[in-house]
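Q: Sequence in, structure out?
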Amino acid sequence: MAGSFSNSWALVKASADVLKVDKELMVFPLLSGIATLLVMVSFIVPVAAAGGLGFFAEGQGTYLGYVVAFLFYLVQYTVVFFFNSALVAAALIRLDGGDPTVSDGLAVASKRMGSILGYAVLAATVGMVLKAISERLGFLGRLAVGLVGMAWTLATYLAVPILVTKDVGPLDAVKESAELFKRTWGEQVVGNFGMGWVTVLAGFSWCLVSVLLVFVGAQLSPWGVAAAGVIAVAGFVFLALLASALKGVYTAALYRYASTGETGAFSTDIVANAFRPKR
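A: Exactly. Output:
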């Protein structure tokens, strides 16, 4: 576990070094968060007004409910994949020695919009199928969904950078992602998952800080509690944006290493051990 954490910390530092040079990369997860929130509101408000929130409740799905849920997944995935693609594109420009801007990343993502939409359709379909299996088969279904979901996550880990750099469709991107991942890190993957340890630790630490802030604020006045709450929420938002930006840089570096063998600002050992077989 110590080795896993030290490697994750090294990945965070290497990604942070890139982010220090291009702080504007954090704009992409911010835009993604705003857009996904707007999409959520645009779906939930009309459905709630029609008394149809049961569509999204587990075990209460109807055919119409599944259609609405699929459309929701599709739009959400499209938004997320678009801004992730923009982030990865900008990170790749930096790793290749360029000086990217927000408009550079958005321009690349816009050019790949057709492939991004196709990938969103594929991801939404997989998500709906797994959801249906989980609902209908109980515990065994949830177990199977968990295993298939993990396999899907690994197989598609490099799909976004492939869509960004190559003129391919979503199926070809998933196929190439799985092949690159298997060839570079092997089949028996149970390892680091990059920055997971550091992200969890940062979130837990800020939880403790937030509790302390609220406690201190409560000793002062009701306004103190409100101020502490605002600071706590702002901290969590910042951590979410930072983690998303770092993950985008990290994903770009992994793809660059898997496809070309080059690591740029990242140590070869760090990237090579990003996903390690359990010993």
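Residues 2-272 form one domain.
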